[in-house]
Design goal:
There is one protein chain. The chain is 33% helix and 27% strand. With 495 residues, the protein is α+β, with helices and mostly antiparallel strands. It comes from Streptosporangium subroseum.
């Protein structure tokens, strides 16, 4: 018998309420040359009956069974029975759009890449919604790319939105580990090991996050076990990337801090609230090696709030961590304080700043690198024969009500001898300003803005877009775009 083009492995466990919708979506695939290997991972709810019914009426479906071991071993069993040229995975409670496998396999047939991947949507009670982790990642298609050249793929951590070339899978002896979060180490390793990857901007998978209701005490303890499994999975990826690609490890570590460790901190807060010290110790024990392995350059570049939370997490300071997180949720922002003069530094007054009894280092509150100039041109217009530049300028984290804005133009003038700087009259209202171009000699002038606040002074060129500029000029003066979209005032004769 001729081998199918594609094998789809579908592990399922106690999803009787969803499996029929899943299998119906597979049966409706526009790619017909496919086998579906359904692996019953010891279901106890009758879902196996639905699977067998599909197999009885459609020869493309086969059912295997094992004692409950988790989705990883179930997938491995299915892979051993798969015979297709390509390999894909779906979960028994999810849905696959009907053209998904035709698009993914078609791309691999055309390019010769090892992996093709596409977008994901979430299944919610309200309908399909974009998945936050994938929305930006699959906005634009790319053929024969790689995670080294497109490092955002480090966020593509699941296997079910992909099709793999089976020869590639076997060559690198890819296999799912046991336990939860088995997708992550396999998906990341495959991205790194692939010769090339195709990115499709079509949605190829609908992922369901089931609502399990309020967690009981037993379920909460299971959540602690889940956190342990999650962090163990992350540690495996950290070790793999440390050997294969330190730069990608830095990208991965950034996602660990911004995404995965949030769940650890949530579990810690719950353990504090419920007074379960054993859970606290388990969580602290499992997360410490993960924090120790974080790339130091990545950590140094984090915002102060995250550096502070990492420190508190690592130092097992659960009450302080809980208070800092509460402050960040409930307060608009922390007040910024200037300290020292040669050179000065700026610090965010998060909880426990300056509290020597806690021993938290001041540098964790340092936000100097976060004080970034934000400048924007709203529009350039004529008013009563005067050219006005309207915009906004502020320094991130500093009170715009206490700031001072200056606007000026720079250029060599018509003579081309030396650079001149001419201050422009400007009205300010908070971060907004209106500057008036007047008394300017002939020449080509760039427009600049400076913001001073709380001892910090930053300046930048003003940019613009064509829609923000007035059409034509007056009295030999016009606004134009220079290189890199910067705003330029061209004066052909004296105002």
């Amino acid at each position: 018998m001729k081998a199918p083009l594609l094998s789809v492995v579908v592990p399922f466990y106690n999803v009787v309420g969803y499996i029929e919708e899943c299998l119906t979506s597979l049966a409706a695939q526009t790619l017909m040359d496919v086998e579906f290997i359904l692996v019953d991972d010891g279901s106890m709810d009758g879902g196996d009956v639905t699977a067998k019914e599909f197999a009885a009426r459609d020869s493309r479906f086969r059912v295997l069974r094992q004692d409950n071991q988790g989705p990883g071993p179930a997938r491995n069993l299915g892979i051993r029975h798969a015979t297709g040229l390509y390999l894909a995975f779906a979960d028994g409670d999810d849905v696959v759009p009907e053209t998904a496998y035709e698009l993914l396999v078609g791309s691999l047939e055309e390019t010769g890449s090892d992996i093709a991947c596409g977008g994901v949507r979430r299944i919610t009670p309200e309908g399909l919604v974009p998945s936050a982790m994938y929305a930006k990642l699959f906005r634009k298609p790319a053929r024969r790319t790689h995670i080294e050249t497109f490092p955002d793929l480090i966020r593509d951590r699941t296997v079910w939105n992909k099709v793999y070339r089976r020869s590639f899978w076997d060559e690198h002896r890819l296999e799912f580990p046991g336990g939860f979060y088995e997708d992550v180490p396999v998906a990341i390793a495959a991205h790194v090991l692939a010769s090339s990857v195709d990115i499709l901007n079509e949605v190829v998978y609908h992922w369901r996050l089931r609502d399990t209701g309020d967690a009981s005490t037993t379920q909460r303890r299971m959540e602690v076990a889940n956190v342990e499994e999650r962090v163990a999975s992350l540690r495996g990826v950290q070790r793999f990337l440390a050997e294969r690609s330190p730069q990608l490890k830095r990208e991965f570590d950034d996602m660990v801090v911004s995404w995965d460790l949030k769940f650890v901190k949530d579990a810690l807060e719950e353990a504090v609230e419920e007074g379960t010290p054993n859970d606290l110790e388990r969580l602290f024990d499992v997360v410490a090696p993960c924090i120790d392995a974080l790339d130091p350059l990545m950590v140094a570049a984090l915002p102060a709030s995250r550096r502070l939370e990492l420190y508190l997490l690592h130092q097992r300071m659960a009450p302080e961590l809980r208070e800092v997180r509460r402050f960040r949720r409930e307060e608009e922002d922390a007040r910024v304080l200037r300290r020292g003069s040669r050179p000065p530094r700026w610090y965010a007054a998060y909880p426990f700043f300056g509290d020597r009894s806690r021993g938290i280092p001041d540098h964790l509150y340092d936000v100097t690198q976060e004080l970034i100039l934000r400048v924007h041109t709203d529009r350039v217009r004529w008013s009563g024969g005067r050219l006005l530049v309207e915009g906004q300028a502020s320094i991130k984290r500093l009170d715009e009500r206490q700031s001072r804005i200056k606007v000026w133009i720079e250029g060599k003038g018509k003579s081309g001898k030396g650079k001149s700087r001419i201050s422009l009259p400007a009205r300010q209202d908070g971060a907004r300003f209106v500057a008036e171009v007047e008394g300017v000699a002939p020449g080509r002038w760039s427009v600049h803005a400076e913001v001073s606040a709380n001892g910090m002074r930053l300046s930048s060129l003003l940019g613009a877009s064509p829609r923000q500029l007035p059409k034509g000029g007056r009295a030999g003066v016009r606004a134009a775009l220079g290189r890199d979209g910067r705003l330029v005032v061209v004066v052909q004769s004296d105002l």
